[in-house]
Design goal:
Helix content is 18%, strand content 36%. The protein is an alpha+beta fold. It folds into 3 domains: 86 residues, 2-Layer Sandwich (Pseudouridine synthase), CATH 3.30.2350.10; 132 residues, Pseudouridine synthase (2-Layer Sandwich), CATH 3.30.2350.10; 63 residues, Archaeosine Trna-guanine Transglycosylase, Chain: A, domain 4 (Roll). Strand 5 and strand 6 form a beta hairpin. 31% of the residues are buried.
Length: 295
């Protein structure tokens, strides 16, 4: 059984759920799940957990993501991308590349962003996109997102390509739309590609076809504990390892080295030698507790 994460290079025109089904077939394994949904028209990095990796999704650090996108000025659509209906067309020919470069600073840092109606966010248990398809628009709350960097790779008006590093939960479609509104002409996305999601990077991404054809699929997998590299690593003694394997919290004397000061709520990885056993969390009042033991 394969355990860990595949970094799949998602093609355009399929859903993230479709990719999960394709991975299941490619590796002939049932326990498969994805993290960080991509729109059907988008491409790029889609981390897919397999086997014990599905238990580790909750511990991943995907707080920062990077995208490369192409926007088109002068046309706004209801989905904020090329798949939608045109809702407005405005003049853009008075704009110059310098106008696009000039508005970058106002989109950096913490921002309030209104999630689009065509999104998977639920209201009253119903995904917004289902309401949007019926022509229903509802009130949405603005959400705080953070844009770490925004650079234009090329500008060939009315189109422009930009790379953005942003916090989880940022809608790049909405960012493009907001850029268009700031310029007074509207905009929508023509292309969107995710190049990074936390430690999952484009350079490590493989296609579904490559996965299905691989003689050694294990060689393509990102090991479970590597995906949790952001968590501190603590070594257990044999006795401590046996306890954790049985779902029991190790005692203070059952670490190879004393853990030292742990922050309240800090998560750590527990090992016996090179074998990754569990993720534990430190509680200021109750001490260490096991969150998930891996087989």
């Amino acid at each position: 059984m394969l355990n860990g994460f595949f970094v799949i290079d998602k093609p355009a025109g399929v859903t993230s759920h479709d990719i999960v089904s394709k991975v299941r077939r490619a590796i002939n394994q049932k326990k498969v799940g994805h993290t960080g949904t991509l729109d059907p028209f988008a491409t790029g990095v889609l981390p897919v957990a397999v086997g014990e990796g599905t238990k580790a999704i909750q511990f991943l650090d995907e707080s920062e993501k990077e995208y490369r996108a192409v926007l088109r000025l002068g046309i706004a659509t209801d989905t904020q991308d090329l798949t939608g209906e045109v809702i407005a067309e405005r003049e853009w020919s008075h704009l110059s590349p310098a106008d696009l470069e000039g508005i970058v600073p106002q989109f950096l840092g913490l921002q309030k962003q209104l999630p689009p109606m065509f999104s998977a966010i639920k209201q009253g248990g119903v995904p917004l996109y289902k309401l949007a398809r019926k022509g229903i628009e509802v009130e949405r709350e603005e959400r705080e997102v953070e844009i770490h960097s925004l650079t234009f790779e090329w500008i060939r008006l009315p189109e422009a390509c930009f790379t953005v590093r942003c916090s989880r939960g940022t809608y790049v479609r909405t960012l493009a739309c907001d850029i268009g509104e700031a310029l007074g002409c509207g905009a929508h996305l023509l292309e969107l590609r995710r190049t990074e999601s936390g430690l999952f990077k484009e350079a490590d991404a493989i296609t579904i076809d490559a996965l299905a054809a691989a003689a050694d699929q294990q060689a393509l997998i990102l090991p479970l504990d590597r995906a949790l590299d952001h968590l501190r690593r603590l070594q257990l003694t044999e006795a401590g390892g046996r306890k954790v394997g049985n779902g029991v919290v190790p005692g203070d004397g059952e670490f190879v080295e004393a853990p030292g000061l742990l922050q309240d709520g800090e998560q750590v990885r527990l090992y016996l030698g090179e074998r990754f056993l569990a993720v534990a969390c430190h509680d200021r009042l109750k001490g260490l507790r096991l969150m998930r033991v891996f087989n």
